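Weekly structure sync, notes
Attendees: PL (lead), two postdocs, one rotation student
Agenda item 3: pending single-chain targets
PL asked that the sequence for the first pending target be pasted directly into the notes so everyone works from the same version. It is reproduced below exactly as submitted, 317 residues in total.
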Amino acid sequence: MPDFAVLLAQGPPLTHNEALSGVFGSISLASWIFLLVPQLVENYKQGSAEGISLAFLTVWFIGDITNLIGAIWAGLVPTVIALAVYFCFADLILITQCVYYNVLNARRAARKSARSAAASQDSPEQPLLGRRDSSNLGLPGSHRRRSSAQSAHSRRRRASSLPSIGEENVGSREWVKNALSIAGVCIVGAAGWAIAWRTGVWIPQPTDNDVSGTDPALGAQILGYVSAVCYLGARIPQIIKNQRDRSCEGLSLLFFMLSLLGNATYGAGILFHSLEKEYIITNLPWLIGSLGTMVEDVTIFVQFRIFGNGEQTAAIA
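Predicted structure, written out during the meeting:
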């Protein structure tokens, strides 16, 4: 790990606010780079993407596209544009994985249903079974509803008992692992900023409005607000899905923890850089998009706490 005292002493002079702005911005960058990895791993382990809402990912992808176009239009620095391109490609990878698992599991379910129907028709006891289930004839979806009711009853029975010591230990280990991951991202981000500043890659940006010379294009500002609206609206389908299913099973908690960290440090990086009115107005779309979504991330954390992986449904149902 680099010696931050030595790096700070050797670099050009800068104020505490400039240093904090740079550190927070770098931590935010590290959060966004690793953001989608936990959910990709969770989907792979589950062999399914049923837990995450495709509407959530689609609206988020639209927000990243408008963010990229706005960054190019406004002529932002190449690193910002490169990061926006990375976001779009990462979104496509996660969306592609989710679509793949959804299609694959739908085909498996269809084949299993066809085999079950064929086996039931070939069985000599089929007429008896047909009479026994005659109450469900002509009612599409009745078997599905009965299965859902049985599954809900099973969840209630499991939830009615106290969690075992092993389950509590697993949950504790998961929280510790997530906390260590967040700490690691913060360390990587801070170290990355120190190295970038020492090597001259990162330079404090002037806060004097006269130095900037040009104002961002109106179209870029509009795209910034469109992107902010998309980011704010993207999590709503996921929140609704969690509430409807009364479960957060299949979602990676670390995914949303990194999102909260990235949004918080991004907003802090802007605010520590300058509190001048014109500067705040210029960056208002990105402040709204980052700080506003934090409220929705906290809502999802509350759902994780209440619903868990579906075992706690009985307390609400």
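Discussion points:
- DSSP finds 13 helices and no strands in the chain.
- The longest helix spans residues 78-122.
Action: rotation student to compare against the earlier draft before next sync.
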